[in-house]
Amino acid sequence: MTSQIRVKPSQVDGHEAILTKEAIDFVAHLNQKFHARRDEFLKARKVRRDKVGAGGTLDFLPETKSVREGDWKVAPAPAALNDRRVEMTGPATPKMAINAMNSGAKVWLADLEDSSTPHWHNVIESQVVLRGVIRRDYKYTDPNTNKEYKLNSGKLSTIVMRPRGWHFDERNMRIDGKPVVAAIFDFAMYFFHNAKALIELGEGPYFYLPKMESHLEARLWNEIFMEAQRLLGIPHGTIRATVLIETIPAAFEMDEILYELKDHMSGLNAGRWDYLFSMIKVFRDRGVDFLIPDRGQVAMTAPMMRAYTDLLVQTCHKRGAFAIGGMAAFVPSRKDEAINKVAFEKVRADKTRESGDGFDGSWVAHPDLVPLCREVFDSVLGDKPNQLDKQRPEVHVTADDLLAVNKTPGAITQEGLRLNIDVSLQYLAAWLGGNGAVAIHNLMEDAATVEISRSQIWQQIKNQVIYSDTAKVATKELAREIVVQESERLVQIGWQKEKILQAAQLFERVSLDDDYADFLTLPALEMIDV
Fold it and tell me: Does residue 336 carry a catalytic annotation?
């Protein structure tokens, strides 16, 4: 019996080149072959989380000890990924794509995940834009300024595309009434249209894989890669993946994740914001020992973060894989040089720490930060493309080290509560309107930072935290009072009232409901017509 495939029409210019019958059939084949496995892993995540909630913990897996102790390495890096000292991140929107490709960064993380939104327009436009820049014929004229953006004629950044996480479905493509897996849709469309063109450029189809929680999920990606390469007649191992270690369960399975993807592996990334979100989410009902200070106070020098990043560098370099550092989210001010001076000093200190620890490169969220990051890594690397030779034998990380949340310096304040609410309302109002990367208070916010904000509030209320600056107890009533105050303030400074009220409704749902939502973007998706 032939399956019935339904794809929502698109109004994006150039969609005809993306939503071809052949590409849709390619997506359908991969989805039908692997959808059920994805569903099993989502259930397995819940089982593991429920065990932790009932008093269990996380540890290195005894059944994979031989992998951790084995003598093996991942495949050598292709030339296009051998030097990753600066990586620019951002959504695959027209202006962002051109600016990122021209930025001087070695890599552009073309993000279809946390800094984008699942509006159908964005999903298809991202594919159109990526197809265009890969073929080097993409231009864009800003309708507001009439300014034209085009690709430079010289060296451009290498693209590493990030599809959506396993938890998302793409409801605008359905097979027999069931939505396809969004991660498969994003990967398959990009791979189908661009793999051969990328190979002709001397590069290849490279991917950042987000929000994984186990090596079995990595094994599924590896099988998808093998099947996709087989279908298009592309040599095994052409695809390369960098996995974001941005969940606490995955931190205990770094070796295993590298091993499962070893023929297609490029490296691991320290996705610090989602990592904090995951720590809160997994241990959210385990009491005060797992309370995290105001997110602005959590430094990468905190013991649990040092354990995480040191283990990541050691594990990667032992296996011949690259270790990529975290995000510098600062957005330079065009009006206040004093803000810029302080922020640039903090960015420099952060990148100096990473390069000194052995990271092979790091992320920035704005083109103006590319020269700073490059300068710091140049000073350490010199003529070398990376630091794979820095093995870190002195690192010895235990499960207790990774879970040492209660050793994190900092306070939990009502001012931090207010900032969490302020940032979340602004971000969610923008997200619901289709913008997933939003500059707020000179920081580039995406879904991960708001996940931390709303999860902290949920956890603080559950534990009846007493805020250090006001001595008030964390309650739903206090949070709602501040939501009202901040909503009114944002409307007064120019935000559209309807959007802020909608954002407040969503925010209260994901931060104050007794039933914790695993991802805020899932109930958010129900509020938009995509």
Answer: no
- pLDDT score for 455: 97
| pTM score of the predicted model | 0.97
Q: Using the 8-state DSSP alphabet, how is residue 173 labeled?
A: E
* Per-residue pLDDT reduced to its tens digit, 293-335: 999 899 999 999 999 999 999 999 999 999 999 998 888 888 8
Is residue 383 exposed (0-12), middle (13-18) or buried (19+ Cβ within 10 Å)? exposed
Strand partners, 6: 174
CATH number of 5-399: 3.20.20.360
Model confidence over 158-167: pLDDT tens digits?
Answer: 999 999 999 9
Amino acid, single-letter form, for residue 17: A
**CATH number, span 411-525:** 1.20.1220.12
Q: Quote the CA–CA distance of 49 and 56 in Å, as a whole number.
A: 9
pLDDT digits (tens, 9 = 90+) for 232-243: 999 999 999 999
d(CA 474, CA 480): 11
CA–CA gap between residue 480 and residue 509 (Å, rounded): 11
Residue 48 catalytic?
no
Q: At what angle do helices 447-462 and 476-492 cross, to 10 degrees?
A: 140
- Catalytic-labelled residue, pool 84, 162, 164, 272: 162
Sketch the domain layout of the chain as residue ranges: 5-399, 411-525
85, 374, 446, 454: the active-site residue: 446
